Amino acid sequence: MVSQNINTKYRYMQEADIEISRDIEINSNPVPWTEKNFLDCLRKEYYCLIQELDKEVSGFAIQTISLDESHLLNIGIREEFRNKGLGQDLLDQIVHASKSMGSKKIFLEVRVSNEPAIELYSKSGFKRVSIRKNYYRLPDGREDALVMSKRLKKPWKLF
Ligand SMILES: CC(C)(COP(=O)(O)OP(=O)(O)OC[C@H]1O[C@@H](n2cnc3c(N)ncnc32)[C@H](O)[C@@H]1OP(=O)(O)O)[C@@H](O)C(=O)NCCC(=O)NCCS
Hints:
Aminopeptidase, 159 residues, 7-stranded mixed β-sheet
């Protein structure tokens, strides 16, 4: 369910949105995605979403969706737009899309030190599943990933 009182609009990402999405990335991650990473996601027809607030791009999210499971690959809110509920609104939209396309669960990796994101996912019902050692490259080393997952549908019951 998308939050009620935030006037966000959603549309599919286009190549013209890569520059601003990459800017959000640069302000978000120690080793940010490259423009080519974004382009690859568009070319592979992943579910690439742009969030707008008052006609300005405020965030983006990218996931793969399949019936078995969806994978949230990246999500980011522009620095000056954070802490206003927009990350929650965007994540709600992502979860809603996966659910409505029949996906049974959604999973993601997050840097173990990324407290804001882990809090956001926990608040949205994602559970801690495992740790992937040295999953992320850093400018001066590696960082573990926390794998989190959320079940989107109850399993079928016979009785
Ligand atoms: C993580 C991120 C998307 C959150 O977006 P946001 O718009 O600031 O989040 P919201 O305002 O919707 O907050 C929703 C919840 O997230 C959590 N949260 C957000 N910022 C937080 C912070 N600085 N510290 C702790 N928890 C935080 C809280 O649980 C919050 O709920 P609350 O307001 O009821 O406490 C944003 O910080 C971001 O873009 N970070 C950089 C990109 C990134 O790390 N992406 C994750 C990749 S795995």
